[in-house]
Design goal:
mainly alpha, 216 residues
């Protein structure tokens, strides 16, 4: 493995940033984001230092948390018409795939690829709809300092690239950069560094604007 887990470093930096800069944020948004990021760093820390192998079951158990949060927050930010219906439909599709994966696998020791891929596609589609509405706005938006744009873009880049990692996981694991480091590990580090950099930037912009992502 790499000497330093850069993906874990990025997650901790994002979590600490949320603790420091979301103090004045809307209670629902601020608390939910902090709890979610805490679950992320807790899971990844356990998988890194406790269950170093055979930890697919942990990621499977965390998957409903990951995609429930993602679908909820992106739907809120996008301000979809009939938001609740869209959100319930997306969650229904994901949990159907999750249950199907569990039934097909017979246990949770193997990663639920179908559920993970469908959840990723759902969030990508919500992000694309956000971009569609954004670029049809009449008012000027500075994208480099717009918290919603940075937040959604982090999600979009993360899940579009993660789909490739999931689909070609076996092949990427066999391509070694060094004796102990597969290409998949390096790509995972890069993707997470980019993803959480966008989120940290979004959190700092929210702090500077003294507002909540759900109020934009």
């Amino acid at each position: 493995m790499l000497i330093f887990p850069y993906y874990l470093y990025a997650e901790w930096v994002c979590f600490i940033s949320a603790l420091l800069y979301l103090k004045s944020s809307d209670s629902t948004f601020g608390i939910t984001v902090k709890l979610y990021l805490f679950s992320v760093v807790a899971l990844e820390s356990v998988c890194r230092y406790v269950y170093k192998s055979d930890n697919n079951w942990l990621y499977n158990l965390d998957m409903p948390i990951e995609f429930t949060f993602g679908i909820w927050i992106v739907s809120k930010v996008v301000f979809l018409k009939r938001e609740k219906i869209i959100m319930q439909l997306c969650l229904g599709l994901f949990f159907s795939a999750y249950l199907l994966s569990w039934i097909l696998k017979g246990n949770n020791s193997e990663f639920f690829k179908i559920a993970g891929l469908l959840g990723s596609v759902i969030i990508i589609c919500l992000c694309i709809y956000y971009y569609f509405t954004l670029f049809h706005k009449e008012e000027y938006v500075n994208l480099l300092t717009d918290p919603a744009f940075l937040f959604i873009s982090g999600y979009f880049l993360f899940y579009t690239t993660s789909i490739g990692l999931v689909i070609y996981a076996d092949q990427l694991d066999k391509l070694m950069i060094t004796i102990q480091v597969p290409l998949s590990y390096l790509l995972n580090d890069i993707i997470n560094l980019i993803f959480y950099s966008f989120w940290v930037a979004s959190i700092i912009c929210l702090y500077n604007k003294k507002t909540s992502l759900l109020q934009l």
